Amino acid sequence: MAIWLTLCGAIVVIAYLLGSFPTGYIAVKQLKGIDIRQVGSGSTGATNVLRTLGKGPGAFVLVLDALKGVLAIALVYWLFNFNPIQNYIPPTVDAQVWQPWLITIAGLAAILGHSKSIFLGFTGGKSVAISLGILLAMSWQIGLATAGVFAIFVAISRIVSLSSIAGAIAVSIFMVILHQPLPYILFGIAGGLYVILRHRPNIERLLAGTEPKIGQNVATPEQTT
């Protein structure tokens, strides 16, 4: 059992480190030589990259951040299906019970890593793109449904933060409607609340009517000096 618990713990740690990989920070640093945390919203996520550098870099960071989430969950599936590891699974462990819980814990670890990156002094993004990747790997139906809600709100409002909050709220509803396991429902609630909390400054700007819409770029240090 000790070896098995160690393997599970290692997966959670790796999921956090995957989430911590600072995709947006590295991309902007390489392209413009600036610290993305010093411009716009200060987030390292795809939306701030979009506003700062444009659609191409923003889409690039979005895809890579989502892939981080997919990979974090894929590691859990690998753990339960890789033949050499099967010998270390204790007879008392029911894979159908353990796997959803470990997926949930690894997913939350990846979300935390993205927003509190160990590589960036525990700063980071708002965990929207990586959450989408996790959802797609967890349940592609819920992932697509959540992405659909996001897309509808973006089309209507042109405000990414509002659309992200709407998606975060919708996740838990979809989890219940599609009869997902209890750990997944808890993930939807905890992950959704966390994403909303990460958007507190955006919510303040939304209430004040000052939240920027898509197409309203922010100035980089090069443009303000």
SSE map:
Blueprint: H1 2-20, H2 23-32, H3 46-53, H4 55-81, H5 83-86, H6 95-115, H7 128-138, H8 140-157, H9 160-177, H10 182-198, H11 200-208, H12 221-224
Helix pairs in contact: 1-4, 1-6, 2-4, 3-4, 4-6, 4-7, 6-7, 6-10, 7-8, 8-9, 9-10
Commentary on this structure:
With 225 residues, this protein is mainly alpha-helical. It is 74% helix and 0% strand. The protein has twelve helices and no strands. It has helices at 2-20, 23-32, 46-53, 55-81, 83-86, 95-115, 128-138, 140-157, 160-177, 182-198, 200-208, 221-224. α6 runs parallel beside α10 and α7 packs antiparallel against α8. It is globular, with a radius of gyration of 18 Å. The model is unreliable at 219-225 (pLDDT under 50).
Task: Summarize this structure briefly.
This protein has 225 residues and is mainly α. It has helices at residues 2-20, 23-32, 46-53, 55-81, 83-86, 95-115, 128-138, 140-157, 160-177, 182-198, 200-208, 221-224. The chain starts with a helix and ends with a helix.
Helix and strand content put the structural class at mainly alpha
Largest sheet: none
Contiguous low-pLDDT stretches (5 residues minimum) are 219-225
Cα shape:
globular
Average predicted local confidence, pLDDT:
90
SS field, number of helical segments: 12
**DSSP strand tally:** 0
Strand content: under 5%
H/E element order: HHHHHHHHHHHH
Oligomeric state of the chains?
single chain
